[in-house]
Structures are given as structure tokens and as C-alpha cells.
Specification:
about 525 residues, alpha/beta, Rossmann fold, 2 domains, nine-stranded mixed sheet, seven-stranded parallel sheet, 23 strands, about 35% helix, globular, binds glutamine
């Protein structure tokens, strides 16, 4: 039977609860435990797929095609937990299913209420994940901040679960903030006391406090927090800011977090350390031998979280090549108004990530032209691959008005267009080509060289596709179709001949990259950028 760790957050949002949950998973895996991780999001959207990136940041996609919160990306990067659509529980999904059951008459005439019907649905979904994956420990992160009205059903559900499961089977960890007030020269514990107080009011007593802080916590402060928050001094864990997120598990281990969790869950396992993470990831991050500059040209550059997995995967590519990756974030609209050279002339490689809508498109096309003509390594992902195709069609194949029908429905040369089944779709939610699909690689291409494998599987999230009617015309001019989906003959990767490294893929490789196992295309891209001769 699985044991459970419930992670809540207090005082403010953006405390890094997701990284904390992922790091707990990492530490427990290192002890030999099989873990599952679940993110509960209290918003009423069924999934974040229809949300604006400014609202939500990146939409992370699982193998089975679920559009989820970006914290699931942290979980996959830190652990080996198998994530599926069940790993993300939103209030939208929960209410949708309860209301559907009510319409179906499943509640046999009862009044349907938040307690017990919504809370039971949440509990069932949490328990299902651990049962179907046969895991030792299930980590459940509750999104939002304690005190939010919409988190209440989730908090009540985990309160009941801990009561039902019992002391050594469930554990509440509260991630909280110890702000440092400069003018007073003091670290304050009051917000943490209040936050734990709010939890206690609804019947949850956290057994471990993870205190986010800029500065070390003194013994005196630890004792004060312990006394006012009803925990032992050893249960107050310092979670100080670190330079790289991948250092967090090491830091928490030094604080004794894994040992403490095992003790509280009554699990006895030897400490085997996390040496491979320390040597293979953290040391390489701290002491890189080289440096490489990569420009990422996108529409949502100002938003830190919009391309989260892309930025992480670039760092992983750097780790694999023993290089520090300095990322230049370039706003594609600025490129449109001010020209691209100023922004990308120093870059050793440029990457164009996924995106939707026509804003900034011409800026990206100009940037691709520049790197294609100047032999600078290029990596186009999803929209980036479509842009590379449009640029090639316009400037090499002479189809001057070539475009995607997403940006110009009347274009005479729709080199990127909708496939038949997408044309019939009316609903926006979960209606794209989503999740993992097979791709067969062409030998002798840069992609094959990177993967060293003929058959690969990668995750998708898009509506538009390379238009096969243009395949002959474009390949004749030097475009290479490096990867195809065998079932439906869809173009998944384009490259161009006689270029040091020019790869555009219709899928999202960034979702499968890990710090200790960089994605082959990111590794290859960074290697090419290091060799670009600048
Ligand atoms: N907007 C493009 C499409 O829908 C690309 C999507 C993406 O980059 N994720 O096909």
C-alpha cells in the first residue's frame, strides 16, 4: 500500500513548491522507493490547454496527451515517476465529472455537495494514481496558497485522507516563507505562524515545515518556529535559495529531509547517497569548461515560465557538453521592428520555440533566413519548424507568398496547413494533435546522428502540419525530410542540406529532456553551437 506525502504552500505563491515536491521525489527515489507525483490545481479550467501563457506559463504535455501544469515538467525532470493524465487533478476535471455523474443519476436522488461529493472525487482520483502505478510513496502537491477559497475542497480531501490512512501512512509538509525585512535586519517568522494557523483551523497539522529563505535560519529562529507551529525543531527544514534548481535536492538532503520523511513514514532504508546527481548534474553546472550563447526568439519572452522546458532542456544540453548555456531571450516582435541582427548576431545558435497566432511571425522568419544563410546552428520546435519551412519555401524555393494557413488563410502556397480531421473540430479544449507519436528517422541526417536510433517517440501539441503537397518542391531545393510519422505519413522533422546544424521538429523534444540525460537533439544542438566557429 502506498504512503502519501501532501505538500501545501503558504504565505505567497511562487515559492517553488513544485521544485520542492520534485526534490522530495528525487530524494526518495535515491533511497530506492518507487514514487508517483500528482499536482492538484484548484482552478476551474478542465486543463490549462486553453489558458493564455501570461495566465499560466508553459503547458506541459504528457505521453498520453494530457495538457498539464508546468510543475509536472519538474517532476519528470527530477524523477522517474510515470506521469499521465491522472497525474493532474484540476477542480475543473473534478466538478465536470461530479456534474456529469449527477446528470446521469448516479447519486440516486441525493443532494450533491462539495462535501462529500467533490472531496470524495478528489480522494478517489488521488488513490487511483498510486494503485494503478503500484508505488511506495505518492507525493501530492496542492496548488495555490493556503487561505485561498478555491483550495478548500482539496485541503479538506487531504485532511480526510490523512485521518483515514493514519499516522505512518500520510504526512503533511508545508512549504512556507521566512521573509527578510532589510530595514529591520531581521528574518520574520510571523507569516509562517499565520499560515500554519490557517491550516490548523481546517484541521491540518503539518509535520514538516520547509522554510523558503534568502538567509540561513538561526537555531533560535528554528526553535521559535517549532514552538509556535507545533513541530519539533528538527522538523523545521531550511530551504534556502540556491543558484541552480538542480541543487535543491542536495541542499534538502544536507538538511536531513529524506531521513526525516522516512522516519515519519516509518520506512527503514539505507542511505545510498545521490552521488550520480551530484557529479553528473550539479558539479557540471557549477564548473562548466566552456560557454555557449543561445538566442531564443519567441513571443512570450518577457514571461519567465512560458518556455520553461525549453530553457531547462538547453541547460541539459549544456551539461552533456560540459558547457554553460547563456540564454538570450529575444522578443520576436522587437526583431520585427528593429531588425534581428542587433539581437542575435553574437549567438552561437538560435532556437525558435512553439507558439500560436500571427504576432511576431515575420520577425522569426527573418531570423531563420539569417541563420540559414550564415551557417549558424538552428533549432526550430513546433511553430519553429513551421517557420523554417515557410522561410525555405519563400526564399529558397521561390514561393514568395508561402505561409501557414494559421497566419494567412488566403495564401496561394499553404506550405503549412490543417489536416482534414482538424478542420472538423469546433471545441478548443484538448482538440489538438496531442501526446506521443512514433517517428521514423532517415539515416544520414543530423537527427539520426543525434538519436542514433531509427524509431523514436515524441510528444506533440499542434493543429497545423507540413503540407505534403509541397514535399517534392521543397526537397528538390535542398530541404531534407529527416523524420516521418509512419502511420499517417506526416512530416515530423525537416533539415536542410549543406548547413552545419539546421533541424526543425514538429514535436516538443524539450518535454523529455532530463538534467542527467539530455535530449539527443538538445545535446546535438549545443554541440553544434559550440563548434560554430564564432
Ligand atoms: N500554432 C502551431 C500549430 O498549431 C504550432 C503549435 C506549437 O508550436 N505548439 O500547429
Amino acid at each position: 500500500m502506498s504512503k502519501y506525502i501532501f505538500v501545501t504552500g503558504g504565505v505567497v505563491s511562487s515559492l517553488g513548491k513544485g521544485i520542492a515536491a520534485a526534490s522530495i521525489g528525487k530524494l526518495l527515489e535515491a533511497r530506492g522507493l518507487k514514487t508517483a507525483i500528482i499536482k492538484c490545481d484548484p482552478y476551474l479550467n478542465v486543463d490549462p490547454g486553453t489558458m493564455n501563457p501570461y495566465q499560466h506559463g508553459e503547458v506541459y504535455v504528457t505521453d498520453d496527451g494530457a495538457e498539464t501544469d508546468l510543475d509536472l515538467g519538474h517532476y519528470e525532470r527530477f524523477t522517474h515517476a510515470q506521469l499521465t493524465k491522472d497525474s493532474s487533478i484540476t477542480a475543473g476535471k473534478v466538478y465536470y465529472s461530479v456534474i456529469t455523474k449527477e446528470r446521469h443519476g448516479d447519486y440516486l436522488g441525493k443532494t450533491v455537495q462539495i462535501i462529500p461529493h467533490i472531496t470524495d472525487e478528489i480522494k478517489e482520483r488521488i488513490l487511483k494514481v498510486s494503485k494503478s502505478n503500484d508505488v511506495d510513496v505518492t507525493i501530492v502537491e496542492i496548488g495555490g496558497t493556503v487561505g485561498d477559497i478555491e483550495s478548500l475542497p482539496f485541503l479538506e480531501a487531504i485532511r480526510q485522507l490523512r485521518w483515514e490512512l493514519g499516522e505512518h501512512y500520510a504526512l503533511n509538509i508545508h512549504v512556507t516563507l521566512l521573509p527578510y525585512i532589510k530595514s529591520a535586519g531581521e528574518q520574520k517568522t510571523k507569516p509562517t505562524q499565520h499560515s500554519v494557523g490557517r491550516l490548523r483551523e481546517i484541521g491540518i497539522i503539518p509535520q514538516i515545515l520547509m522554510c523558503r529563505t534568502e538567509r540561513p535560519i538561526s537555531q533560535e529562529q528554528r526553535e521559535k518556529i517549532a514552538l509556535f507551529c507545533n513541530v519539533d525543531v528538527e522538523d523545521v527544514i531550511e530551504a534556502a535559495d540556491v543558484k541552480h534548481i538542480y541543487e535543491v535536492p542536495l541542499f534538502l538532503k544536507k538538511e536531513g529531509l529524506d531521513e526525516l520523511i522516512l522516519k515519519k513514514l516509518n520506512i527503514k532504508l539505507a542511505d545510498r547517497g545521490i552521488k550520480s546527481w551530484e557529479d553528473g548534474v550539479v558539479k557540471r553546472l557549477r564548473f562548466p569548461a566552456k560557454e555557449v550563447k543561445i538566442a531564443v526568439v519567441g513571443k512570450y519572452i518577457s514571461l519567465q515560465d512560458a518556455y520553461k522546458s525549453i530553457y531547462e532542456a538547453l541547460v541539459h544540453g549544456g551539461i552533456a557538453n560540459n558547457a554553460k548555456v547563456s540564454i538570450f531571450k529575444v522578443d520576436s516582435e522587437e526583431v520585427e521592428t528593429h531588425g534581428f541582427k542587433k539581437y542575435i548576431k553574437d549567438a552561437h545558435g538560435i532556437l525558435i520555440p512553439g507558439g500560436f497566432g500571427s504576432r511576431g511571425i515575420e520577425g522569426k522568419i527573418a531570423a531563420v533566413k539569417y541563420v540559414r544563410e550564415n551557417n549558424i546552428p538552428f533549432f526550430g520546435i513546433c511553430l519553429g519548424m513551421q517557420i523554417a519551412t515557410i522561410e525555405f519555401a519563400r526564399n529558397v524555393a521561390g514561393l514568395k507568398a508561402a505561409n501557414s494557413t494559421e497566419f494567412d488563410p488566403q495564401t496561394p502556397d499553404p506550405v503549412i496547413s490543417l489536416i482534414e480531421e482538424q478542420k472538423k473540430i469546433e471545441n478548443l479544449g484538448a482538440s489538438m494533435r496531442l501526446g506521443a507519436y512514433t517517428c521514423v528517422l532517415e539515416k544520414g541526417t543530423k537527427s539520426f546522428e543525434a538519436y542514433k536510433n531509427e524509431k523514436i517517440s515524441e510528444r506533440h501539441r499542434h493543429r497545423y502540419e507540413f503540407n505534403n503537397a509541397y514535399r517534392g518542391q521543397l526537397t528538390q531545393k535542398g530541404m531534407v525530410i529527416a523524420g516521418l510519422n509512419p502511420e499517417r505519413d506526416l512530416v515530423e522533422i525537416v533539415e536542410i542540406k549543406d548547413h552545419p546544424w539546421f533541424v526543425g521538429c514538429q514535436f516538443h523534444p524539450e518535454f523529455k529532456s532530463k538534467p542527467d540525460v539530455a535530449h539527443p537533439l538538445f545535446k546535438g544542438f549545443i554541440e553544434a553551437a559550440l563548434n560554430c566557429g564564432k
